Amino acid sequence: MEPAVQPTVRDAVHPAVALVDVVAVLGSFPALAGASLTVQRGEIVLLRGPNGAGKTSLLRLCAGLLPVERGAATVLGCDLVADRTSVRNRVGLLGHANGLYADLTVADNVRFWGATVRATDHEIDASLQRMGLANRLADVPVGRLSAGQRRRTALACLVARRAELWLLDEPHAGLDAAGRDELDATLRGAAAAGATVIVASHELERAGALASRVVEVVGGQVRELER
Amino acid sequence: MSTWRIARLVAAKDLRVEWRSRVVVNQVLPFAALVMVMFAFALDNTQLLTRVAPGLVWLATMFSLVVMVQRSFAVETADGALDALQVAGVRPGGIFLGKALALGAQLAVLQLVLLGAAIVLYRTELVAGGIVLLVTTYLAATTGLAFVGTLYGGLAAGAKGRETLLPLLMLPVVAPVLIGATRATEAALGTEGATPSDGWPWIGLLALFALVFGVGGTLAFGSLIDE
Fold first, then answer.
1. What distance in Å separates the CA atoms of residue B197 and residue B62, rounded to the nearest whole number?
2. Which end of chain A has a smaller Cβ tally under 10 Å, C or N?
């Protein structure tokens, strides 16, 4: 699928993500303490690190949900220090929560999130197909699905939203073997089409095989790892 | 996407959630009817009930409003959908208007049931000359309540103890609607010799209330849910 917003000439010269010495806080807790990271367009980057290291905060900051206290942060050419909301319709974030409506069916959910970027019926159907949901599951309320099926639905919503930057927090969690393969294929396809993918995961073997680069987040800072 | 288009999308989604879950129909409407029955038991005097019926109808509306607003935002926060809406770059003003529109539609149904209950339980009689005032009162008050409910629902959505915080914050604010709508309804029903002309000045108060909270909510909702 094409990205929601076609990249401009200005976008082409900017990396997808450029963080320099970024500090961000959650309440009084320093979530990021001088984090620096550059991600080029089309890359798939794995964020690894222990619990509480700042991986989720890094993803939320890139999505424009967490304010930058200090440092410089540019995502898809948008300056998050000046206006962190400006990047929001161009990124897709799959966090620990799925962002789904339990009373709506799988198809209803994908249609709703697709409609926020005016996705066509064909694109909605393709998103369901891509995540293996274009069968009897499409008409099942999300509240009745297993955790893995909900994760697939959330991923289908992300596909329908045609994000330029995919920010995924433990995306493999709860998925069965087939779902994991479909997810990996979807992410590779998105990256091949020009999207950038950042995955935070503890499943180092699978996510590491998917990623073109691995970085470690420790104590709110980012460290590049040799592959 | 335009604010109005987002509003329609969100309103349709909220009404679809209700259509599939039937929470308002199966739980809130019986709750409201039960409150009306309890008032009848507590006062146990037909003359008195007929005299205070307008106030009781609006009081039952306020109690039900708290439950409906909590439900409306529980749907958004249960699986992180409110965060997802922000990341999707959906205009907050559109979310506010859409949720208020859906809440207003459900409130309108609730009020028809409450009016029916008042006619049956309290021997309230509709007066032909007061129908226009009654309909206008219901429209203006419902609009104001929907705006206030959505604004305070958004404010309490991310707070600790939001279930108890919401009525504490919201009920004092809707007091002018309770007073204005009760007086206007008394005038429309001819309670204690009141005439429709006595009610129209209260419509001005209700309209002003709706306008202030409609405009204020549309402008402030983004900051509220961001915090």
1. 25
2. C
**Predicted local distance difference test score (pLDDT) of residue A13:** 62
Q: Which one of B8, B19, B79 makes the best mutation probe of the A interface by having the most chain A beta carbons within 10 Å?
A: B79
Q: So where are chain A's domains?
A: 9-224
B154-164 CB burial, b ≥16 within 10 A, e <16: bbbbeeeebee
Low-confidence ranges of chain A (pLDDT < 70): 1-13, 226-227
CB contacts of B77 in chain A (<8 Å) are: none
Facing residue for B87 by CB, picked from A63, A108, A115: A63
**DSSP letters spanning A4-64:** SS---HHHHHS-SEEEEEEEEEETTEEEEEEEEEEE-TT-EEEEE--TTSSHHHHHHHHTT
**d(CA A111, nearest CA chain B) in Å:** 10
The pTM for the full model equals 0.88
Q: From CA B194, how far away is CA B185, in angstroms rounded?
A: 10
Chain B environment of A96 (Cβ under 8 Å): 80
Edge-to-edge strand list for the sheet holding A78-79: A29-39, A17-26, A70-75, A78-79
Contact at CB, B83 and A65, closer than 8 angstroms? yes
- Minimum-distance CB partner of B88 among A100, A102, A161: A161
The ipTM of this complex is 0.88
- Tell me the pLDDT band of B89, cut-offs 50, 70 and 90: confident
- Superfamily for A9-224? P-loop containing nucleotide triphosphate hydrolases (3.40.50.300)
